[in-house]
Specification:
Length: 240
């Protein structure tokens, strides 16, 4: 049931693998994972149904692997396995704080995760569980951004919340340009015309075609996830 305070009933949170990493975005930082679990848990306690798609860039990135000589499809499968490691780490942190969680993988590995079955995932949401989708789409050449766009539409999410290290979308890199301007709201077409890299082109097209709004925000500010779902103007909204 939708919380009377929340703007959304069901959301998809897209987490990069780097968000779980240390200061250099490598490996798994227990403090960061615990903080992320706390933010997710407090949103779940509002009665909001939540699914999560997680990346694996803190462990292995398929594109980077292919640039070092690994065959691209093989490198992408390796990257998918990295997302499963991250999903299990996040599941552990969530359940230690008392938030029931299920991991579903697009690649079958039944000893550690359920296979992705849409109706089963829906049932988990109805029972109050957070569902983490691992292994991307299960196909090489597709990013976890594309997996997020696909799962958000499949699961009937009302919005994709893309967690980053910056507080929204800027007209240029704010780390390099102190005069960079942040957009509070931007249309899909404007984002494409300005070549703002909100998501990769496949993921972004899927969102645009299905009118799936995207909010890009900074997850590293305390309680920012909760502020977003309560309707506060946090980050940048990409919509039609």
């Amino acid at each position: 049931m939708k919380s009377p305070k929340s703007k959304y009933r069901r959301i998809l949170l897209k987490l990069s693998g780097e968000a779980l990493g240390d200061a250099h975005s490598n490996g798994i930082d227990g403090v960061r994972v615990a903080d992320m679990a706390e933010q997710i848990g407090e949103v779940r306690e509002l009665g909001i149904e939540m699914v999560i798609v997680i990346g694996g860039g803190n462990i292995f990135r398929g594109v980077a692997g292919s640039e070092k000589g690994i065959e691209r499809a093989t490198a992408d499968y390796m990257g998918m396995l990295a997302t499963v490691i991250n999903a299990l780490a996040l599941q552990d942190a969530l359940e230690r704080r008392g938030t029931p969680t299920r991991v579903q993988s697009a690649i079958n590995m039944t000893q550690i995760a359920e296979p992705f079955i849409r109706r089963r995932a829906m049932r988990h949401l109805e029972k109050g569980r957070v569902v983490i989708f691992a292994a991307g789409t299960g196909n090489p050449y597709f990013s976890t951004d594309t997996a997020a766009a696909l799962r958000a539409n499949e699961m009937g999410a009302e919005v994709i919340l893309k967690a980053t290290k910056v507080d929204g979308i800027y007209d240029s890199d704010p780390k390099k340009n102190p005069k960079a301007v942040r957009f509070a709201r931007i249309s899909y077409l404007e984002a494409l015309q300005k070549q703002l890299k909100v998501m990769d082109s496949t993921a972004f097209s899927l969102c645009m075609d299905n009118k799936m709004p995207i909010i890009v925000f900074d997850l590293f500010k305390p309680h920012n996830l909760k502020r977003v779902v309560l309707g506060e103007e946090v980050g940048t909204l990409v919509t039609g």
